[in-house]
Specification:
The protein is α+β, with helices and mostly antiparallel strands. Among the domains are: about 325 residues, Rossmann fold (3-Layer(aba) Sandwich), CATH 3.40.50; about 90 residues. The protein is built from eleven helices and 39 strands. The strands form nine sheets. The chain has an eight-stranded mixed beta sheet with strand order 32-33-35-34-36-37-38-39, with helices on both faces. β36, α7 and β37 form a beta-alpha-beta unit. The radius of gyration is 25 Å and the shape is globular. The protein starts with about 30 loop residues before the first strand and ends in a 5-residue tail after the last helix.
Length: about 700
């Protein structure tokens, strides 16, 4: 019989939380575009490496948080249960090169995944790169890998402590030797040109997120001789460059936010000779998203939201790219969103999303003769195909099904399980249901509700959301929530506006001046869960990370009367100064520019840091940050924690906790033991602030 936590309702363990450290503040009020903006904790903006005072203050905050979260009587049981679920083997999708199969796998007690190789799908796995051999602390991670067409050479990226500053290396997979070339600068791989060279992108200045450049490297040559192909012109226009069809064609994308892109292309040989000037327009100046998928022959297949919020697949002859020559190949059914398209043995493999769940279809290159590819159920999936093979590999998961790898013959839809973890968990023990709530403006917003099978009546509920950047929050197995659900708690995942669940219109309805819609959707979800008898009215916890951390921050400050607690992970919280730090200027098309009066007018009313009212009783909040975060600066977490600790009416009754991880960034590359610790932190915090457990 599976071990299940038995947790009883009891008073929260608040007596174990020490008083909040005393924090100095420097009164500061600025007038910006006629708005008075207060910022008393600006001194907390520097990194610890830049300020001993900030480091000392953070030490005190971290000590308090550890005392509070480690004292919970069920802490060890929760952590043990999460560890049992996390420590199972994790197997990633294979990348196939002929008979060679490459993938990332983490087995047993390993802190990070290793790069594996098999000869044939059923061949014995051999380790060709183990990060543990490079770092006994387990902080070094393989960010990505890319074998060439033969499988002989593998380019891969390594980063440490979650800083995402990938250093590009090259491995001879046959000999096991590393080539002498090493390319630092937050490297990203952009495609092989045969087996002799490749294109990559880096930051020319690691401290400048707006210094992207794309270069071509020839194996055996020093990187200082690499040809520059494309450079970033401005922070608001983000370039990307990828090679297609074995490296014959180069396709460039210029991003202006997440709703508008320009596409250019050139034969790679011509690009190497002439540089950036060789790139010719394919789709320029449209108010739409364009996403190149693949090149077959001399035709580019791209997904675009032009004229269709859910996207459509277009075929463009790269020698005749004028708009009148485009051919629309495939359009998903109304209410569905086209996510990707791949080429496989003369057919299209299409990934479609409907109400956040994945569907696969196969068709001919004209978009006809469409047939579905079966999946085990309603969940989220990704597919990997090899151009010359009918065999595909599918990664599939749902709320009650851990991630597994399926092998599918696309010719006859014969499916088998290629790899599946042996979890101490019964999928039948969890029920998943679909709920809809009505937001403030009348919009219907969906959510998944996950709870223990057979449970009834209101229970403490964690509500998770993201709501931004056209990102879909799909049904996926979340092992960290299992102890909460087994104890009788409810987990709700809300598909808020701003995401990509229903196409570009859904995204745009939750960005810029409409960003408040996202927060209204979250409130509507929480209220619906209560009125539907699913959630306890005094035991709701909002949770989100990054842009979702902003969501959780707004829940705590703007919706303080609804939530018992808020878990805000690596968040944006000071929305007046956010573009001044790290890579945040990239996000101006999503949030707006605080230096523009009109934009500041819609940003200020929701910015958590600027809407705290002295003497108001706020819910308990757990704010986490990574000192090595290269995306969201930890100043956001520090400043709001300090302000809430100072101004909340009775902070001792609802503690404001801050945890700044010195061994982590935005989350990527975090070793297993730290992931387990963080997951347990979230669960015991939710138990404390909802009087659940004890």
């Amino acid at each position: 019989m599976l071990q299940v936590l038995s947790l009883l309702i009891s008073p929260a363990i608040l007596s174990e939380v020490p008083p909040a450290p005393s924090t100095r503040f420097d009164p500061l009020t600025e007038t910006i575009h006629g708005f008075e903006v207060r910022d008393d904790f600006r001194w907390l903006e520097p990194l610890e490496s830049e300020s001993e005072e900030v480091k000392a203050w953070t030490d005190l905050q971290n000590q308090r948080t550890r005392t509070a979260l480690d004292a919970h009587p069920k802490r060890q049981m929760v952590e043990d249960r999460i560890e049992a679920l996390y420590r199972v083997d994790s197997i990633g999708l294979p990348t196939v090169r002929g008979e060679l199969h490459f993938n990332l796998e983490r087995r047993g007690e390993a802190k990070q995944a290793s790069l594996m190789r098999r000869k044939g799908a059923e061949g014995e796995a051999e380790v060709i790169l183990d990060p543990a051999s490079l770092d006994n602390d387990g902080l070094t991670a393989i960010d990505w890998f890319a074998p060439d067409a033969t499988g002989k050479h593998i380019a891969f990226g390594l980063s440490r402590a979650g800083d995402e500053m990938s250093i590009l290396h090259i491995l001879n997979a046959e000999s096991g030797n590393w080539l002498t070339e090493e390319i630092p600068g937050k490297a990203e791989f952009c495609g092989w040109r045969g087996s002799t060279g490749f294109v990559y992108g880096i930051l020319t200045d690691p401290n400048d997120a707006y210094s992207r450049v794309f270069r071509h490297h020839t194996i055996g040559r020093h990187p200082r001789h690499d040809e520059t192909l494309l450079t970033q012109e401005s922070p608001s226009r983000i370039p990307d460059l990828r090679l297609h069809d074995g490296g014959r064609w180069a396709v460039a994308v210029h991003f202006e936010g997440w709703s508008k892109q320009d596409i250019l292309a050139a034969p790679t040989s011509q690009l190497l000779k002439e540089g950036e000037s060789a790139l010719q327009p394919v789709a320029i100046g449209y108010e739409a998203r364009f996403e190149p998928q693949f090149v077959h022959g001399d035709a580019l297949y791209m997904i675009s939201t032009l004229g269709n919020s859910g996207g459509a697949l277009w075929k463009v002859d790269l020698w005749r790219p004028d708009r009148e020559n485009w051919q629309q190949v495939f359009t998903p059914a109304e209410g569905s969103v086209l996510q990707s398209a791949s080429y496989c043995r003369g057919e299209l493999v299409l990934t479609v999303e409907r109400e956040a769940a994945t569907q696969f279809f196969v068709s001919n290159l004209q978009g006809d003769s469409i047939r579905p590819v079966p999946l085990p159920g309603i969940g989220t999936a990704s597919i990997a195909v090899e151009r010359s093979s009918s065999t595909a590999f599918v990664s599939y998961a749902s709320f009650n099904t851990p991630n597994q790898i399926l092998q599918v013959d696309l010719a006859d839809n014969q499916t088998s399980v290629w790899a599946s973890p042996d979890l101490p968990f019964d999928p039948e023990s969890i029920d998943v249901q679909r709920e809809w709530c009505i937001s403030k403006d009348g919009t219907r917003v969906p959510m998944f509700v996950v709870r223990k099978a057979g449970s009834e009546g209101p229970a403490p509920t964690i509500v998770y959301g993201y709501g931004g950047f056209n990102i879909t929050i799909p049904p996926r197995f979340i092992g960290s929530m299992v102890p909460w659900i087994e104890a009788g708690g409810v987990y709700a995942s809300v598909n808020l506006r701003g995401g990509g669940e229903f196409g570009e219109a859904w995204h745009q309805d939750g960005m810029l001046a409409r960003k408040q819609n996202v927060f209204d959707d979250l409130r509507a979800a929480g209220e619906h869960l209560v009125t539907a008898g699913i959630a306890k009215s005094d035991a709701l916890v909002a949770m989100g990370g990054s842009n979702g951390g902003l969501l959780a921050g707004v829940a705590a400050v703007q919706q303080y009367d609804l939530w018992a607690g808020s878990i805000s992970m690596v968040p944006l919280l000071d929305m007046v100064r956010y573009p001044q730090f790290l890579m945040a200027k990239f996000w101006i098309p999503e949030y707006g520019d605080p230096e523009v009066k009109e934009d500041l007018g819609w940003i200020l009313p929701y910015s958590p840091y600027h809407n705290v009212v002295e003497g108001r009783q706020y819910p308990s909040v757990l704010i986490t940050a990574g000192e090595n975060d290269n995306r969201v600066h930890p100043m956001h977490a520090r400043k709001l924690a300090a302000l809430l600790q100072r101004d909340t009416k009775d902070e001792a009754a609802a503690p404001i906790l801050l945890w700044v991880d010195r061994e982590a960034g935005h989350g990527r590359g975090k070793p297993m033991d730290l992931r387990i610790r963080d997951a347990a932190d979230r669960i015991v915090f939710a138990m404390q602030c909802t009087n659940f457990g004890g």
